[in-house]
What we know:
Layout: H1 2-33, H2 39-74, H3 84-101, H4 104-113, H5 116-127, H6 132-156, H7 163-187
Amino acid sequence: MDKNQERQNINLNNSVELLQQSKTETIEANQKSTVESSPRDMETRAEKAKNEALETAVSIESENNEKYKQIKHSSPVIKTSICKKQKEASYMQIMSHVQNELNPGNRIFSKLIHNKMIEKTSDVIGNTIARPNALLLGSFFAFIFSLLAYTVSKKIGYSMSGFETIASFIFGWSMGIIFDYLKVLFTGKK
C-alpha cells in the first residue's frame, strides 16, 4: 500500500506542476495580449491563477485520498484462526493429491497407513509405549544382559530358557520410560 501511495503522490505532484505550468502559460499569454493592463491587474490575475491552480491541486489530492481510502477499506485483511474442520479438509486434499501421484501399490499402502483409526492408534502408542529412549534402553539392556546371562550360563553349564532377553528388554524399557518422565518433570521439555 505504501508504494501505491507513493505513486499517487508522485502522480499528484506531477499533475500539480503541469497545472501550475499551464496556468503560468495562460497568465503570460494574457499579459502579452493585454499590454495596456496596469501592473495591479496583472498581479490580481496572477493571484487568481495561482489560487485556481491550488484549488484544483487540492481537489485532485482529495479525490486521490478518497480513492486510496476506498481501496484500503474495500479489501480488509481479516485475521481468523484456522478451525479443525479446515485443517482436516486441507490435510485430506493434500493427501488425495499426493496419493494420486503414487503408483497403485504405494497408493493402497498409503491409504491403509493414513486411515484415521490407524493414525490415532499409532500416535497414542508412539506417545506412551514406544518412546525412543525406552526402546533404545530396552534394546541396550536386552543385549547386555542377554550377553552376560549367556556367558555365565555357558561357564556354569546351565541352559537358557529365552525369557532372559525379554525380561532384560522390559527392565531397560521401564528404565527408559522413567528417564523420559523424569526429564519432562524437571526440564518441562519433551
